[in-house]
Amino acid sequence: MKKVVLLAALGAVLLAASATAGVKALGGTITADGSSTVGPYTIAAAEGFQKKNKGVRVTVGISGTGGGFERFCRNEIDLANASRPMKNSEAISCRDAGVKWVAFTVANDGISVVVNKANTWVDCLTTAELKATWNTGSKVKSWKDIRSSFPDVPLKLFGPGTDSGTFDFFTEAINGKSKASRSDYLATEDDNIIVQGVSGERGGMGYFGFSYFEENADKLKLVKVDNGKGCVAPSIRAVQGGTYKPLARPLFIYAKRPSFRRAEVASFIGYIFNNEKAIAKQAGYIALTDRQLKKARYQFRVALKANG
Q1: Contact, 81 vs 42, CB < 8 A?
Q2: Which terminal residue of the chain has fewer beta carbons within 10 Å of its beta carbon, N or C?
Q3: Same domain, 104 and 119
Q4: What is the β-pairing status of strands 204-208 and 231-232?
Q5: C-alpha pair distances (Å), 203 with each of 160, 184, 302
Q6: Helix (H) or strand (E) holding 223
Q7: How far is CA 116 from CA 122, 178, 183, 218, in A?
């Protein structure tokens, strides 16, 4: 009983790391890589954490969710940023390499479908129209091919590459199967290139995380999505309330258990959950609901106990 109380107390101390900075000096380097969607969130968290812990350096790479998990399972990084859960094949790779991990849900996202600002003919697309456009073997070449009332403007598609968790989630949610996508589009792990591509082509269309639309709302037009229950745009209320279907999703940070045993890594994760809403707001993300945050903090304490 005493051990449980002590572990709970330790969890409370680490969750309050931002309020007790300076009580114990932390040092070392924390390495993270992975999702281009989660990367900016982790960077925002790292900036705040490093201000309060001058001896810690947090480095964040952007190689896509799949690329991040590859490095994670090769024991090259402490944290893997992921915009989808780890796949069975990735879990097996980690297991075979002796890498044990713990996953934390850190924020929410609504994949945003965007078009050029000069596009005056579309405000909403059905999930069936998105599937017809993006599915394997799609012959859609013009906006008129999507809907007969649309003009005959050439369609130019831009989207995440195959290492992206956003690509996996979108193709599964819209096309019915992960990786099931037409290949004749400009694919990139850099969401800024998608922004540039869509904003530079009158007939452009692309998709990426909600935060990237928020950051580039002056350059792009957001398209609502209709899954049969009316047109809905991604927003804090729609994502948290469960009405932005099927493109709402949670975002994750995976931590290696040996890394999590290090005080600076555990304190960084604790800092995130103690400041989750502020980090999400600063970085333009959709915060966890109160229920999600309560569960995440519980998982944090369980992870501390497992390492105790």
Answers
A1: yes
A2: N
A3: no
A4: unpaired
A5: 18, 15, 50
A6: strand 220-226
A7: 10, 26, 21, 11
Please check the confidence at residue 27 and state whether its pLDDT lies above 50: yes
Is this prediction's pTM over 0.70? yes
Single out the residue in 181, 203, 233 at which a domain terminates: 233
Residue 259 lies in a domain: yes
One domain, residues 225 and 122 = yes
Cβ-contact 63, 71 below 8 angstroms: yes
pLDDT in tens, 61-105: 999 999 999 999 999 999 999 999 999 999 999 999 999 999 999
- Report the 10 Å Cβ neighbour count for 127: 17
Name residue, tokens 């900036």. 47
From 234, 135, 207, select the one nearest 176 (Cα to Cα): 135
Are 68 and 119 in the same domain? no
Say which residue the tokens 């452009």 belong to. Answer: 204
CATH number at residue 93: 3.40.190.10
- Domain hosting 163: range is 112-233
3 state DSSP class of 116: strand
Are 271 and 21 within 8 A, CB to CB? no
116 and 229 in a single domain? The answer is yes
